[in-house]
Design a protein that fits this description.
Length: 413
């Protein structure tokens, strides 16, 4: 029985979970969070001699958020006991992973979107640490109505980019270009070789992506080569402003039992789904990248089957934030490689806009304006209709300045 006076709730706290070799990181993180006004619990500061560590750990995980410092030592059984791991995983959605070195977490934890402090200076690391603890917040003004009358509504491009837009900085980003054009059993697609050559040249010149961060996976035999390249590119991106572009062109098929999108490699065989690369694996590799913005382009048959992969696939698979996925065709449609062209249809539409500009488009092309322009080109040429899926302002991913300029006015008679 109470006395009728409501008791003040104990303020939530952040429990710092770390491995002993990372003690200096744990103390720095705890101090910065404490200075920012958070209630922090660090075993070295708050637990007394004689305390039962297992009981204290269970209480901390049950009553607070768990900020875990992911590192090589953290995943080393020498420093992390089974009891500790069981308690940390029990935190569920109260677990806040923070990477302090370049070590890849175990496969179970890779889908978690982890903040990375690795390689950042003091002030940048402090800003990123505090940023991850704040929700984006609700808008101050009513969002505009996004609907239109039918799918054929005319696209209207803004006359100029919003005042807050900044030019793209792809120099801190990376790209992975995967093209499968010559097969052992499936039909060859020679136009895809042209896709790789032209797209690679444009990304390293107009976009400014460093050549050592433009990874071209040309005609891979093993699906693991694709995932390895995406993971390497992801590690190369800068967390605060880095961007990641992942492109795939080749044969795509639906899984005969689940219907999920399967991407081919040079050794793929239609009766054997295990010889293909499930798009879900690309999703996981992209999700674990520290890049702040991610552009994914899939140019293959049935590519729209990959759209739902941006949504959460389970409690340990959060949706990919800050992402724009372009698919060259619908879930039941084939994509095209028009006869006589050196590039496939959808990639040719995209590259045409990036190379020559978008008539009537904004001065700075972004993911949305590029996609809408390519969709118009495909419609005009009776090519398959491309599809898209967007997460968390992915449509605003900046690309390059629009190269289109109106011609001179006609001469007076």
């Amino acid at each position: 029985m109470g006395d009728g006076i409501p008791q003040a709730a104990e303020p939530p706290f952040l429990f710092i979970s770390y491995a002993e070799p990372d003690r200096s990181w744990a103390e720095w993180v705890a101090w910065e969070l404490q200075e920012a006004g958070y209630q922090v619990q660090l075993d070295r500061w708050d637990w007394r001699s004689g305390d039962n560590r297992q009981v204290k750990l269970g209480h901390a995980v049950e009553n607070g958020q768990v900020l875990a410092l992911f590192s090589e030592a953290y995943f080393n059984p020498r420093y992390s006991t089974a009891d500790h791991w069981a308690a940390v995983l029990a935190a569920g959605d109260r677990l806040i992973p923070v990477r302090i070195d370049e070590t890849e977490p175990p496969k179970l934890l890779r889908p978690l979107l982890a903040l990375s402090l690795y390689g950042l200076g003091h002030e940048s690391a402090r800003r990123e640490l505090l940023k991850v603890l704040h929700a984006p917040g609700r808008p101050q003004n009513r969002p505009p109505f996004p609907g239109a009358t039918g799918d054929t509504a005319r696209v209207r491009f803004p006359a100029s980019p919003p005042p807050s837009r900044k030019p793209a900085d792809w120099s801190t980003g990376a790209c992975v270009l995967v093209g499968v054009h010559t097969y052992r059993e499936l039909s060859d697609q020679p136009a895809i070789k042209g896709n790789l050559e032209d797209l690679g040249k444009l990304l390293t010149t107009s976009f400014g992506i460093p050549r050592d961060r433009c990874l071209i996976v040309d005609n891979p035999l093993d699906p693991r080569a694709v995932i390895d390249a995406i993971e390497r590119a992801g590690r190369a991106t800068a967390f605060e402003s880095g961007m990641l572009l992942v492109y795939y062109a080749g044969h795509g098929i639906p899984h005969p039992r689940t219907g999920q999108l399967l991407l081919s490699v040079a050794d793929s065989r239609t009766p054997s789904p295990h010889t293909f690369l499930p798009f879900e694996q690309i999703r996981e590799a992209v999700a674990t990248s520290p890049a702040s913005q991610r552009l994914v382009i899939i140019d293959c048959c049935y590519s729209a089957r990959g759209l739902d992969a941006l949504a959460a696939a389970g409690p340990l698979l959060p949706p990919i934030e800050g992402t724009f996925l372009m698919a060259s065709s619908g879930a039941t449609e084939v994509s095209l490689a028009p006869r006589g062209r050196t590039r496939t249809a959808f990639t040719d539409a995209l590259l045409g806009i990036l190379e020559r500009g978008l008539p009537g488009g904004p001065p700075l092309l972004d993911a949305e304006s590029l996609f809408e322009g390519a969709r118009r080109v495909c419609a005009d040429r009776k090519w398959p209709r491309p599809h898209r899926q967007v997460r968390n302002d992915g449509h605003l991913i900046p690309l390059i300045p629009n190269r289109w300029h109106p011609g001179p006015p006609p001469a007076a008679d």
